[in-house]
């Protein structure tokens, strides 16, 4: 499943080709993604593209009138074509630009979404979202306040969208390893110092992964949802029973509520 860094890398890659461009027309071949594709997508002719943004794991295309929201679900990806290629079975949407570039949305498993809305701030998808992890507002004081009296595990807390968005399982495991904190630690028992370091590591790891996604994925979101070039840099995620890169102890994996936690018993406490 694409996580925040892959989507941000994709955003950065497509932005220069789409910003200030004018849409010619859109073709929708399959209306049934996770939610039906907004029919308004067909009415975006001649609309100017103001900006390409991201909020949590949603890619947002700001038009003269309204926004296109793209969610990649499990297997969605965007491709930029500079000449028409005959669509394959899972190529559901094409948006043709006047500059001849085509933005193509492909989604094999169809858990993604493509919606048009006139107002983002009041939309049900965005109303209850927490802070962006790379924003200034997401700092240790904010997290100290949020974790105060919280009895859930620290891993669940940093993956909680109402606190901070876009930290999926991979990056939660990696940030906790980098900070030396066990995923199962009770949120309210973390020290201020640990929270400071955790916030710093979350930002560093996400930025690093965005860079890697940007350099290896170019105009594509990888279809298997793996974290692009960052895959080689993962220290615990997906490394069960392999030696810890810091101390040599074997990495432990445990499944909880369908999500796997990975940690090193020696480096994390
Ligand atoms: Zn270790």
UniProtKB/TrEMBL annotation:
Domain (FPG-type): residue spans on this chain: 235-269
InterPro entries according to UniProt: DNA_glyclase_Znf_dom_DNA_BS (IPR015887), FPG_cat (IPR012319), FPG_Glyclase (IPR020629), FPG_N (IPR035937), H2TH_FPG (IPR015886), Ribosomal_uS13-like_H2TH (IPR010979), Znf_DNA_glyclase/AP_lyase (IPR000214)
GO biological process, one term: base-excision repair
Keyword Transcription regulation listed: no
The protein's required cofactors: Zn(2+)
Domain of life: Bacteria
The keyword Acyltransferase appears for this protein: no
Catalytic reaction equation(s): 2'-deoxyribonucleotide-(2'-deoxyribose 5'-phosphate)-2'-deoxyribonucleotide-DNA = a 3'-end 2'-deoxyribonucleotide-(2,3-dehydro-2,3-deoxyribose 5'-phosphate)-DNA + a 5'-end 5'-phospho-2'-deoxyribonucleoside-DNA + H(+); Hydrolysis of DNA containing ring-opened 7-methylguanine residues, releasing 2,6-diamino-4-hydroxy-5-(N-methyl)formamidopyrimidine
PROSITE patterns: FPG_CAT, ZF_FPG_1, ZF_FPG_2
Co-factor binding details: Binds 1 zinc ion per subunit.
GO MF terms, alphabetically ordered: 8-oxo-7,8-dihydroguanine DNA N-glycosylase activity; class I DNA-(apurinic or apyrimidinic site) endonuclease activity; damaged DNA binding; zinc ion binding
Keywords of the record: DNA damage, DNA repair, DNA-binding, Glycosidase, Hydrolase, Lyase, Metal-binding, Multifunctional enzyme, Zinc, Zinc-finger
EC number: 3.2.2.23, 4.2.99.18
Family: Belongs to the FPG family.
Entry-linked PANTHER family: FORMAMIDOPYRIMIDINE-DNA GLYCOSYLASE
Entry-linked NCBIfam families: fpg, PRK01103.1
Name the record gives this protein: Formamidopyrimidine-DNA glycosylase
Lineage: Bacteria, Pseudomonadati, Pseudomonadota, Gammaproteobacteria, Enterobacterales
